Fold this sequence. Notes:
Elements: E1 3-6, E2 8-11, E3 14-21, H1 39-64, H2 66-79, H3 82-93, H4 98-114, H5 118-121, H6 124-139, E4 153-157, H7 162-165, E5 173-178, H8 186-194, E6 198-200, E7 213-217, E8 222-225, H9 229-248, E9 263-267, H10 273-278, E10 283-288, H11 290-294, H12 303-316, E11 321-325, H13 353-358, H14 360-374, E12 380-385, H15 391-403, E13 409-414, H16 417-421, H17 423-426, E14 432-435, H18 437-444, H19 463-478, E15 482-485, H20 493-501, E16 506-509, H21 514-521, H22 526-537, H23 542-553
Parallel strand pairs: 3-4, 4-5, 5-6, 9-10, 9-16, 10-11, 11-12, 12-13, 13-14, 14-15, 15-16
Antiparallel strand pairs: 1-8, 2-6, 3-7, 7-8
The protein binds phosphoenolpyruvate and magnesium ion.
Amino acid sequence: xxxxxxxxxxxxxxxxxxxxxxxxxxxxxxxxxxxxxxxxxxxxxxxxxxxxxxxxxxxxxxxxxxxxxxxxxxxxxxxxxxxxxxxxxxxxxxxxxxxxxxxxxxxxxxxxxxxxxxxxxxxxxxxxxxxxxxxxxxxxxxxxxxxxxxxxxxxxxxxxxxxxxxxxxxxxxxxxxxxxxxxxxxxxxxxxxxxxxxxxxxxxxxxxxxxxxxxxxxxxxxxxxxxxxxxxxxxxxxxxxxxxxxxxxxxxxxxxxxxxxxxxxxxxxxxxxxxxxxxxxxxxxxxxxxxxxxxxxxxxxxxxxxxxxxxxxxxxxxxxxxxxxxxxxxxxxxxxxxxxxxxxxxxxxxxxxxxxxxxxxxxxxxxxxxxxxxxxxxxxxxxxxxxxxxxxxxxxxxxxxxxxxxxxxxxxxxxxxxxxxxxxxxxxxxxxxxxxxxxxxxxxxxxxxxxxxxxxxxxxxxxxxxxxxxxxxxxxxxxxxxxxxxxxxxxxxxxxxxxxxxxxxxxxxxxxxxxxxxxxxxxxxxxxxxxxxxxxxxxxxxxxxxxxxxxxxxxx
Length: 556
Ligand code: PEP
Ligand code: MG
């Protein structure tokens, strides 16, 4: 019988297929004793299993490359740690089976790591993964991790970590469903990057039986278990309809009555530009320059290297707008040479613009690289600072831009509630605002963006967040200046319409979301967007705000 489950849709489209679970079961082998003459054979089995798992991790790393390779190689080294292996041998010598000896030796090592300070404690999950792989091999049961399947499937997991997904074959994975995670979790970002439908935060996902057919609607967050033939046909038809509407909607972003809302792309560097151009982005609304700095966290990239990277992005939008954010180091993006290592609360410490004002040489090099990169190009360059708290911050940034001889508009990101509350005073120093709703939610609700347990408060439909967006947009309007959104909120098509109704003047998002936002915006008039925005703000929860907006748009 068909049943319906509800989670959070984070990547659009419909996927229908059989459930395959990510293998994560912790296998506890029975504590049975072996005879002394069996010890040597068991030690050989243990050694073989460890070597095979290490070789497999190295091979997966080689295929994956980049950051995932480093993680997987570190895991391979853990597997072959000589002290751990000596402990396994000792346990077998006194009567353990190979699998039990591995299980117990890893448990002892785990205890040591868990108590050895924050960094090592963070490696416990990697250690558990290695142990599970070795024990699974010894027991002859399926490996934890990505399912081994030649047929396409819907991947169901508790949550997905980068190492789990490094080897996912996009031609086999029809969609994702996870029990944990939120709109900015790794699973959501990965699903959007692969362009497969995904639903996260689905209670009961873990209990879906292997092989059950499910239909995942990544737009509504619904998952249909054992869908009827009618339901499948209906979902496929509406997905096809949506797709057709998407390809039919091209050109600049605008509401049904022609109110223009430029749709811009969020990029991390030149590699993201082709997707932005293909999606019809009207420019770049957020160039996260820290990716250039993350390659080597011991020093800043040279001015020449920066000029080359900036120019490649600027050249892709000859007549368009490119908004470059200066380095946002600290908190979740620490850089060894800039970020203090002893802050009790890094998200509340020296990060973003604060870091740059402490290191004016890094800021001035970046600004002068930007000035050189834009030389001779007709592009509309705009430069903005992350984490502006008040007018003094905004002035310090604008002064630095002027001192670098930058011919660009200078702006401030609104990521701290104080900046939204006093937006007019900040606008005395800069020419535009850009709302970073990810951090604005984090600071408004005192809810760390990296902590899953507080993800409810990271929901960008929260009416308090909408209030701060409205305040900023109204301030910009009163000052005759612009106020865009470049946080994840802009990528939600319905919320994008609500943001437009709140007075936001441009929307910037990951390129894959642009066609969806463009198509949805084109369906409603500005007056409808304004009514939906007012209805959403009149509620007291994210859920009610979404429902209220939906009701306005569907004419209820
Ligand atoms: C934001 O905080 O909303 C934002 C756009 O910046 P980042 O996600 O890079 O912190
Ligand atoms: Mg931010």
